[in-house]
TrEMBL record:
Domain annotation 2Fe-2S ferredoxin-type: ranges: 2-78
Signal sequence residues: none
Organism: Bradyrhizobium quebecense
Protein name: 2Fe-2S iron-sulfur cluster binding domain-containing protein
InterPro entries linked to this entry: 2Fe-2S-bd, 2Fe-2S-bd_dom_sf, 2Fe-2S_ferredoxin-like_sf, 2Fe-2S_ferredoxin-type, 2Fe2S_fd_BS, Beta-grasp_dom_sf, CO_DH_gsu, Diverse_Oxidoreductases
Keywords, sorted A to Z: 2Fe-2S, Iron, Iron-sulfur, Metal-binding, Oxidoreductase
Keyword Isomerase: no
PROSITE patterns on file: 2FE2S_FER_1, 2FE2S_FER_2
Length: 406
């Protein structure tokens, strides 16, 4: 993790992030500035355009750490900007927006055109705006809106600023880099390369105890089961039984001193992954709390994950009822990392926990009833039902939002 220091919309901000974190993700996930939209995530569509040191920048392909100490202005920071206010009115007047998804990036780029082009032709405007794509309007209203603002400002005697006050060369934000001494710039001497060996499970387990690691995404959840707190706490000491309640999870062998090797399979619609990994489990009988620290890798997508689950077992609100509080943090990298920012992973985790609780109730009831053999439990997801449930949830949220706006 590295410390990222920026000045965003006039306020100094600082946060611990991974070096691979893009500026758009930093703004949306750390600062909740969701006016910066993510579209193609390849720097093509322009929906993520914002200003870095006054220069329009594709934030989806710009590393946040590459902009250390830079002045970042998002669409939220342009609320009181004179040119932006005129563009908003012109876009409304000329029907320059429909669904609105491209509009934040479109307005930022249009503002730059108004600021630096004195008397552009329609073709000049279209070329200047060609890095911002719109699937709705056909661009006619957008071009007219920009033409109208330019004509109005020039008519009021407000001239364009040559090059938009751009005085720096190089990537956006690079003008804030500190000087590097010759000694620091000199390449370090390295030893001859050695063959890379697979990390032994024991060594990997030791690396899990690295206290400097911080999860990228965290959330909390609680559930209750209708069984005494002592029965639930004792059940959690049986790692194999707990794993059996988790859909898609299986152990590669018997746990040794709180260390276990295993795998978990996840399949939701077109998303399929099988993470092979390790975990360390610790428990505190005095406080009835525990932690599970794990790491795994999916060979098919070359994606890796690392997670930390903390749990606390407490008496419930009624007799013979137990409440379990969970704190879940994880980091996902590789091809599947794109799904972690959308909230899909959290939805999937919530539904995994729901199935886990159902299986836990079944197993505890089976034990308390003196049953023999394995009880019938849910071993995997109904992926189709999960996707339908997610779609219905999002539709309900959208409907509630629309009702609040009316």
């Amino acid at each position: 993790m590295s410390t990222c220091n920026l000045n965003v919309n006039g306020s100094a901000v600082s946060a611990e992030i991974q070096p691979r974190t893009h500026l758009a993700d930093f703004l949306r996930e750390k600062l909740n500035l969701t006016g910066t939209h993510l579209g193609c995530e390849h720097g093509v569509c322009g929906a993520c355009t914002l200003l870095v040191d006054g220069v329009p920048t594709r934030s989806c392909i710009t590393f946040a750490l590459a902009c250390q100490q830079a002045e970042v202005t998002t669409i939220e920071g342009l609320d009181d900007d004179e040119i932006t206010r005129e563009l908003r009115a012109a876009f409304t007047r000329e029907h320059g927006l429909q669904c609105g998804y491209c509009t934040p990036g479109m307005v930022v780029s249009a503002r730059d055109v108004v600021l630096r082009m004195q008397d552009p032709s329609e073709r000049d405007i279209r070329v200047a705006m060609s890095g911002n794509l719109c699937r709705c309007t056909g661009y006619v209203g957008i071009v007219r809106a920009i033409q109208g603002v330019i004509a109005d400002r020039r008519g009021r005697g407000i001239a364009a600023i040559p090059n938009g006050n751009r005085t720096r060369l190089g990537p956006s934000g690079s003008g804030n880099a500190t000087a590097v001494t010759a000694a620091a710039a000199r390449p370090k001497t390295t030893a001859a390369p050695t063959a890379i060996k697979a990390e032994a499970p024991a060594a990997a387990a030791t690396s899990l105890r690295d206290t400097s690691w911080k999860p990228q995404t965290t959330f909390t959840q609680s559930f209750t089961v209708g069984h005494p707190v002592d029965d639930v706490w004792n059940f959690f000491s049986d790692i194999g039984a707990v794993a059996a309640c988790l859909p898609g999870a299986s152990l590669a062998g018997e746990p040794v001193d709180g260390h276990v090797d295993g795998q978990i399979k996840i399949k939701v619609g077109p998303i399929s992954a099988e993470f092979q990994g390790i975990a360390d489990v610790t428990r505190d009988d005095a406080t009835r709390t525990g932690t599970i620290v794990g790491a795994g890798k999916d060979k098919r997508s070359n994606s890796s994950t690392r997670g930390l689950i903390g749990y606390a077992v407490k008496p419930g609100d009624v007799e013979n009822q137990t409440r379990v509080d969970l704190s879940i943090g994880f980091t996902l990298s590789g091809a599947l990392a794109q799904f972690s920012r959308s909230g899909l992973i959290q939805d999937v985790a919530g539904r995994i926990i729901a199935v886990f609780v159902q299986n836990l109730e079944t197993r505890l009831s089976h034990r308390s009833g003196g049953g023999e053999g394995e009880p019938a439990m849910v071993r995997e997801f109904d992926a189709g039902a999960l996707m339908r449930s997610l779609a219905l949830d999002y539709m309900r949220r959208a409907l509630r939002w629309l009702l609040r706006q009316s």
